[in-house]
């Protein structure tokens, strides 16, 4: 029995990848012709390669000589491996002829009857290990160079055994991936169901008034954006709520960026307090969350706006739900401007119509929607844990199969019985 540093004990023979497979790094990007015989040719890059397949719909063009077109061409059945980016990610190419690979990809072809599908599963096992960080020096910018890939020690059973293992893993991983996809769809359906509930609760009363948002806020606390230039991150300072914090979900005080007190002090006008709303107004527009208690001094950046509902006429939790309905989000969306940096200006935000009713009804509706949203959050967390366990199961199965720690023939027979 042999031991591979990144894989552990292996019951199969071990060899370097170059002994079982021909590995070629792609062509350096050539934006212009360098000779009269150069031609433009479509090429694949690391973004084209996923574990599931190789995307040939979004290809780009580069110049290459006829010799290079032949040298770096890909054909159906080739395994393409990412040299950079998500290093080690590998996909089987089954697309049309006429494409080449850029030097962000390796092309792998079998020697001596070996199976590139088996090698792909070996790379999956490598990808799931921490050894890849060491191999590619991912502390800086990770690259799986041709020499590193060729020298990589891998299990190399007989070609027949490789095919049996690849067939088994093809079957089993498809089943696991199908369960993962079904759980993802379940989550999406629960999100849709909650959105429909929110729409019906907020928009259900057709006689409800729709005053502009500016009419619902405290006059002494107008809608404002915050700190223009937060400066470098510091370890001890004033927390700032950014648009990204709001788009991710409820505001988490321990994850906020900190800035120097002297910088924040220039923007006292936009300081937050418990119960205020913060809306993302730059980049991804529309996400809105409530400021929790216990924050102390807290502010927003220029990509977020503070909204302070007047408690005598508006319940913050209800206003958040009202601003989060599809109808309200559509209203905001059509008023987004800009090209490089998109956003909605404060003047338009002040005019946003909000479905309003009396305080008692607002509290009741907010309570109903908060409970439903809490259930949704718990459901998402439950499904996320399940997904993590399935991914772990898939990774463990792949590692056990490629090392020979399980006999795939026996495993298939036992499953059939």
TrEMBL record:
Origin superkingdom: Bacteria
Signal peptide: none
Annotated ranges, domain Type I restriction modification DNA specificity: 67-171
UniProt cross-references to InterPro entries, sorted A to Z: Restrct_endonuc_typeI_TRD, Restrct_endonuc_typeI_TRD_sf, Type-I_RS_S_subunit
EC number(s) stated in the UniProt entry for this protein: 3.1.21.-
DNA-binding listed as a keyword: yes
Protein name: Restriction endonuclease subunit S
């Amino acid at each position: 029995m042999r031991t591979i540093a990144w894989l552990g004990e292996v019951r199969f023979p071990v060899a370097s990848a170059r002994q079982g497979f021909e590995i070629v790094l792609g062509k350096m990007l050539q934006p212009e012709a360098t000779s009269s015989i150069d031609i433009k040719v479509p090429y694949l890059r690391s973004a084209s390669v996923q574990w599931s397949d190789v995307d040939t719909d979004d290809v780009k063009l580069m110049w290459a000589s006829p010799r290079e077109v032949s040298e770096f061409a890909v054909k159906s059945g080739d395994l393409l491996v990412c040299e950079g980016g998500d290093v080690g990610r590998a996909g089987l190419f089954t697309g049309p002829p006429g494409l080449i690979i850029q030097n962000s990809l390796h092309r792998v072809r079998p020697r001596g009857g070996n199976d590139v599908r088996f090698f792909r599963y070996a790379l999956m096992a490598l990808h799931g290990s921490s050894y890849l960080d060491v191999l590619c020096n991912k502390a800086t910018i990770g690259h799986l160079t041709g020499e590193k890939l060729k020298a990589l020690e891998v299990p190399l059973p007989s070609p027949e055994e490789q095919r049996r293992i690849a067939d088994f893993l093809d079957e089993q991983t498809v089943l696991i991936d199908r369960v993962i996809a079904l759980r993802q769809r379940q989550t999406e359906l629960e999100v849709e169901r909650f959105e429909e509930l929110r729409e019906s609760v907020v928009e259900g009363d057709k006689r409800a008034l729709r005053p502009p948002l500016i009419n619902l806020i405290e006059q002494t606390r107008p809608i404002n954006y915050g700190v223009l230039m937060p400066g470098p991150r510091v370890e001890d300072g004033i927390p700032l709520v950014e648009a990204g914090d709001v788009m991710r979900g409820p505001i988490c005080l321990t994850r906020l960026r900190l800035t120097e007190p002297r910088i924040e002090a220039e923007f006292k006008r936009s300081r937050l307090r418990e119960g205020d709303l913060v809306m993302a107004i730059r980049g991804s527009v529309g996400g809105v969350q409530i400021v929790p208690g216990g924050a102390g001094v807290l502010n927003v950046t220029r990509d977020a706006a503070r909204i302070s509902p007047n408690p005598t006429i508006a319940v913050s939790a209800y206003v958040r739900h009202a601003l989060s309905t599809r109808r309200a989000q559509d209203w905001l969306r059509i008023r987004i401007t800009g090209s490089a940096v998109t956003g909605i200006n404060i003047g338009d935000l002040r005019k946003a119509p909000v479905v309003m009713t009396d305080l008692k009804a607002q509290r009741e509706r907010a309570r109903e929607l908060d409970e439903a949203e809490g259930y949704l959050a718990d459901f998402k967390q439950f499904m996320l844990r399940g997904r993590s366990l399935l991914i772990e199961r898939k990774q463990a199965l792949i590692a056990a199969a490629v090392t020979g720690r399980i006999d795939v023939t026996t495993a298939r027979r036992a499953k059939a019985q």
